[in-house]
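Archive maintenance. Older records in this collection stored only the sequence; we are now back-filling the structure field for every entry so that each record is complete. The fields below show one back-filled record exactly as it appears after the update. Entries are processed alphabetically, and 16S rRNA (cytosine(967)-C(5))-methyltransferase is next in the queue.

ARCHIVE ENTRY
Title: 16S rRNA (cytosine(967)-C(5))-methyltransferase
Organism field: Marinobacter koreensis
Length field: 434
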Amino acid sequence: MTGGHQPIRAVAAGVLLSVEQGQSLSQCLPSALNRVGDHERAELQALCYGSCRWFHRLDAELGDRLNKPLRKPDRIIHHLMLVALFQLRFSDRAATYAVVNEAVEACRALGKPHLTGLVNGVLRGAQRDEAPEPRDDPARFSHPRWMVDKLRHNWPDDWQGILEANNTQAPMTLRVNARRFTRDQYLALLDDAGIEATPTRFAPHGLQLARPVPVDRLPWFADGAVSVQDEAAQLCTTLLDLAPGQRVLDACAAPGGKTCAILEACDALAEVVAIDESADRLPRVEENLERLDLVATLKQADAARIEDWWDGDAFDRILLDVPCSATGVIRRHPDIKLLRRESDIVPLAGIQLGLLNAMWSILKPGGRLVYATCSVFPQENHRIIQRFRKQCADSILVEPEVTWGRDTGAGRQLLPNPDSHDGFFYAVLEKPEP
Ligand SMILES: C[S@@+](CC[C@H](N)C(=O)[O-])C[C@H]1O[C@@H](n2cnc3c(N)ncnc32)[C@H](O)[C@@H]1O
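Back-filled structure field:
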């Protein structure tokens, strides 16, 4: 510990406690990173992500090692032991020799000296023993039971693969700004910079890096040459069938990854309107547009309340990237395993269907709407499309000619692929001409 900094495991335990109490890692990690030394930041991030990723497995083991649960005011020490257990189970053995002593020191720094004996005893036991064989699927796959059950029910042939993919570390993927460079040109620039990359299989402007790098190492990043965006997210522009002169709406736009992809894909669009209801997230769209030197009309609004923001001019193209469970991107956001509740899904589906109905009403006849989620639950995906089409029988479901994903009968589902893209869902709908 140096200069007012706190022991890294104590800080990580606090982060894990905040996540358990409902905050996302992206909400609570930034301030936590300021409480450790510069050289410890990467390690703190790895500890927090890893402990969330393996929370359910580690928690099962810790539960077995404790005679009784800790009292509520001491809950942070439970999380401290989880963080240390993560290191014991998932770091190579040589790196773990100091873990127990440092966890004991962190216990003291957290103001719980009466629990140092417990922390020492539990962790020494874990260090001595082999990792136990997980006793059930939630522990084996390290997911909450409801997610395991739901995925098994939804994807009887794929659920284990999905759960395993969720526990991997996602690759870093770039979208080359087609207005600046071709993919091959940028690949050559990466090569010159000693950064290994390969073209993505399905997205035309994507490059997947062999290893993640800080964005400031990417050639011309600050000047808008590339953006960081998963391959599945990049596919939206291929489905929108963009053409010069179109008026395009991105209805749930922040942080703007897809807004920018739309503008890069077609440079003579009449207008791109980007809406998001979150005042905190909308500035991120502005930042991305600025870096890429692109222009869109931004509005902070609930897109479904069209009377609040719509000017009466219908759209040729609408991208509806709805709020969802984000169960297709768990490998990038392992805190979703702790944050999401089974009871969230029905209300989310209600919001999704409501947004779809509202957006349909402002789509031009002959226009196209792309519905997207980063979810792997049919309830938020093809079942929304089926429910919508029951109410709106004249909507045309377009079957895109693509080689990726699976046809669900009402849209295409990508499952998370440990070697490449995230889990995603897309459905393409067209409004008939009168
Ligand atoms: C999946 S994210 C969008 C990601 C974005 N399309 C991108 O590619 O960068 C969903 C967004 O919808 C926004 N949102 C949720 N409900 C909304 C509503 N009723 N109207 C507008 N935006 C909404 C959230 O604030 C969130 O930023």
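Update note: The chain has three domains: 8-140, 173-228, 233-430. The chain has 19 helices and 13 strands.
Entry marked complete.
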